[in-house]
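Q: Please design a sequence for this.
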């Protein structure tokens, strides 16, 4: 990671002000104060892995407040921040929730009004698009400021992966960094999904069932036998009930499954890591029973054949695959 700012050498009277001006502007403007006027120290290192900006914060005890006015005026509603607590403890209030985090915990926050009281410690903060989460987990209000505790297996795995990813980031090629960052986001989603699957208010039980179903689809896209009845059985609900839940959200179960298969296939067609993978094998890997079935559905969705899509988005990939006799 690269040093971005440190209060070392800063006069104590100016430390909080400079931290607010140079650091908080990186995320969202906030009011900052230290308890009883105690001296403040802080350091920020930054990196970007693929398209994923990561900040490493260390600071002494501090209280941070984002007001409604600042959130409306300068917050970015399209972004969320995932905080991995490395040391110290935080108490966070946002969206009528109060969360308490300890080392190893993971929590997602947005740029809306909030209050955070943080002990001396450090954290990784990852800046991500909100849509990346809502596509799988539903509206972000359901899991904003909901702590995925370190004792969850998925959170432990996610925390270890993210810290190791930061450690080796300078040795990754751009393509590898992009893929590894995407895996990191998938792990974060899995941690939040596991947390949401725990005790939840009855009023959001339907949302959680749909979110669990979407997470199951993501994990089993390559299985050609995945269909609505099997998905309902995996969720422990009747097919009729699951259909009702999807219909309430303007979706059909089968359309969602095929849609995700096509989206993943389209992404793989442009992924250099899949450059030598024939279109037939790629189709099977996304859960299609035949290449013809895949080609028909793909063209209905994207108006071009898989081969044309690959060539248009990464001409070098198609040329390489054709020369190798691997495209079909």
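A: Design:
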């Amino acid at each position: 990671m690269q040093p971005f700012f440190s209060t070392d050498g800063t006069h104590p009277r100016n430390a909080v002000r400079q931290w607010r001006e140079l650091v908080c502007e990186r995320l969202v403007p906030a009011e900052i104060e230290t308890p009883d006027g105690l001296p403040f120290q802080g350091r920020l290192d930054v990196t970007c892995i693929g398209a994923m900006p990561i900040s490493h914060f260390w600071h002494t005890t501090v209280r941070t407040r984002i007001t409604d006015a600042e959130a409306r005026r300068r917050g970015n509603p399209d972004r969320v921040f995932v905080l991995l607590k490395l040391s110290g403890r935080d108490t966070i209030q946002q969206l009528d929730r109060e969360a308490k985090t300890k080392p190893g915990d993971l929590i997602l926050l947005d740029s809306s009004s909030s209050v955070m009281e943080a002990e001396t410690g450090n954290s990784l903060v990852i800046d991500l698009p909100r849509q990346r989460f809502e596509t799988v987990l539903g509206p972000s209000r359901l899991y904003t400021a909901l702590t995925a505790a370190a004792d969850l297996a998925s959170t432990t795995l996610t925390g270890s992966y993210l810290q190791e990813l930061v450690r080796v980031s300078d040795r990754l090629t751009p393509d590898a960094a992009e893929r590894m960052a995407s895996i990191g986001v998938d792990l974060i989603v899995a941690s939040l999904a596991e947390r949401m699957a725990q005790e939840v208010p009855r009023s959001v039980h339907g949302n959680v069932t749909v979110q669990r179903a979407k997470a199951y689809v993501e994990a089993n896209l390559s299985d050609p036998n995945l269909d609505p009845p099997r998905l309902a059985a995996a969720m422990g609900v009747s097919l009729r009930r699951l259909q009702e839940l999807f219909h309430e959200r303007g979706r059909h179960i089968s359309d969602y499954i095929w849609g995700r298969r096509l989206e993943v296939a389209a992404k793989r067609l442009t992924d250099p890591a899949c450059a030598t993978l024939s279109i037939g094998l790629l189709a099977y890997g996304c859960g299609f029973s035949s290449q013809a079935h895949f080609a028909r559905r793909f063209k209905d969705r994207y108006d071009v054949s898989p081969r044309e899509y690959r060539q248009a988005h990464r001409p070098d990939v198609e040329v390489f695959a054709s020369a190798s006799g691997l495209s079909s």
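Q: Thanks. Anything notable?
A: The longest strand covers residues 79-87. Confidence is low (pLDDT under 50) at residues 315-328.
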